Amino acid sequence: MVDLVFPSSCVSCGAPLARGNYSVCGKCLSRIEPVEKGCDLCSGMLFDGKCEICENRKYYPSANLVISEYSGVMKDILHAMKFESKRRLCVPMGMLAFRKISGSGITADILTSVPMNRQKKRKRGYNQSELVAKDIAARMNIPYRELLSEVRGAGTQRSMGYRDRFINVLGRYHSKKSETIKGKDILIIDDVFTTGATVNECARVLLDEGARSVFSLTFARAGIKRLEKNRLN
Q1: Which residues have CB under 8 Å from 115's CB, separation 6+?
Q2: pTM of this prediction?
Q3: Residues 21, 94 within the same domain
């Protein structure tokens, strides 16, 4: 009856779905291909055997995991979560993330997520990274905690170039619960990994507050246009 009154469809292929499918069909989920041939540390793309993300700068996470490329089904899912209020997608995303973490051997005491400023969160109604992080925490049977906050007036990263992203993110995040952080292994969740500037700054803040280690997981890897980087440098 619910399916008749409130019909649902797959956010990627448009096929009709029952509510229990969480807005994406199993066929589309099976088409999400894992990231391969990336940097062992940050999972960034390699050019001539070198990583353009972390090779020439201090990289604070002990490792960054990425589920897939920012394309195809994954791109459709993330767009629907961010701009179409498809909150229920946090469940299949949590499942994919949990599988990735389990296969990596990474363990953590606490899960957290990259924060969103209040104005943006109020407008959207939720932080998609937080929703998925809470689902992952439940699957891993460890607590989720809001450990970071974003300073007011911080500009968006989306429209910025390679170098400006690293400059803009400096001092962007503050710790909220320093006593909770000390001596803990922390896993932080974010949606899209482009330059790695966001998770790198979050990890730096957490380590400065006494975290024993910080790992990160991002849902998708967006490639850096090499020509853009060369132009900005």
Answers
A1: 127, 130, 146, 148, 149, 150, 173
A2: 0.86
A3: no
* pLDDT confidence band for 40 (50 / 70 / 90): very high
Residues 107 and 61 grouped into a single domain: yes
Say how far apart CA 156 and CA 16 lie, in whole Å: 35
pLDDT at 177: 77
Number of domains in the chain: 2
CATH code assigned at 204: 3.40.50.2020
Q: Is the pLDDT of residue 77 over 50?
A: yes
Query: Which residue type does 139 have?
Result: R
Same domain for 27 and 40, yes or no, is no
Q: Left if phi > 0, otherwise alpha if psi is -120 to 50, otherwise beta: which for 72?
A: left
Domain interval for residue 73 = 33-232
- Single out the residue of 129, 107, 103, 105 nearest to residue 116, CA to CA: 129
Check pLDDT > 80 for residue 38: yes
DSSP 6: S
Query: What pLDDT does 176 receive?
Result: 84
User: Same structural domain for residues 19 and 64?
Assistant: no
Q: What is the pLDDT of residue 223?
A: 74
Residues 180 and 74 in one domain: yes
Residue 195 pLDDT exceeds 60? yes
Going from the C-alpha of 92 to that of each of 43, 111, 175, the distances in angstroms are 22, 18, 29
The conformation of residue 45, written as its DSSP 8-state character, comes to: B
> What does R_g of the chain's alpha carbons equal in angstroms?
18
